[in-house]
Amino acid sequence: MRTIRSSVLAEVAMAWCSFQQIIFVKMFRRWVAARDAGLDRRVAVAEVYRGPGNAMMAAVAADSLFDMVEARLGRALKCGCCCSASLGADETALLGLLQYSASAGGVTTDAIPHGLSGAICWAAMAVRRELGIPRSEGATTGQPVARCPFARHDRGTVSRLLH
């Protein structure tokens, strides 16, 4: 697995992401654009899906995940520019959520200080399944995250969120 070497980064490059993670970010960016334009988010997400599973099933799982995260945070998720090769803070946090969902099993873990609701964990695992991300990919390193990754403004510990 690749790690980001620098401890201080202004932006996180998608070059450090796996193919499935890049597709996930593209799905998220399309979802935000559709949400903001008042369009059907699931259809928009299904259009950019590339993976081993069913495009609409992946879109439904991603839509559920993003919706539940927004509800839990009490705010709209923000994405980077559609053509940007860098990840925004929410995109990085969502990738971290995908990573930790592989081992969280729907319960609170030290890796996620405020806990991960069972519904969000199951939605993240459904996204992983539809994108073909193996359960072994993304196993936690045992290093707990100091605070909610969605509140993160620095990128200093991002290496723990990305492989």
Write out the strand line-up for the largest beta sheet, numbering strands in chain order. Answer: 1-2
Helix/strand order:
EHHHEHH
| Ends apart, CA distance between termini | 5 Å
- The average pLDDT is 74
- Tell me the helix content: 40-55%
Number of helices: 5
Low-confidence region ranges: 1-11, 139-144, 153-163
Taken as a percent bin, the fraction of beta residues is under 5%
**Helix vs. strand class:** mainly alpha
Strand elements, count: 2
Characterize the largest beta sheet: strand count, sense, and whether it forms a barrel.
2 strands, antiparallel
Whole-angstrom Rg: 14 Å
| Shape by Cα distribution | globular
What is the domain tally? 1
Describe the structure.
With 163 residues, this protein is mainly alpha-helical. It has five helices and two strands, in the order E-H-H-H-E-H-H. The protein has helices at residues 19-37, 41-48, 55-73, 89-104, 118-131; strands spanning 12-13, 86-87. Strands 1-2 form a two-stranded antiparallel ribbon. The longest helix is centred in the first third of the chain and has 19 residues, at 19-37.
Brief summary:
With 163 residues, the protein is mainly alpha-helical. The protein has helices spanning 19-37, 41-48, 55-73, 89-104, 118-131; strands spanning 12-13, 86-87. The protein has a two-stranded antiparallel ribbon with strand order 1-2.
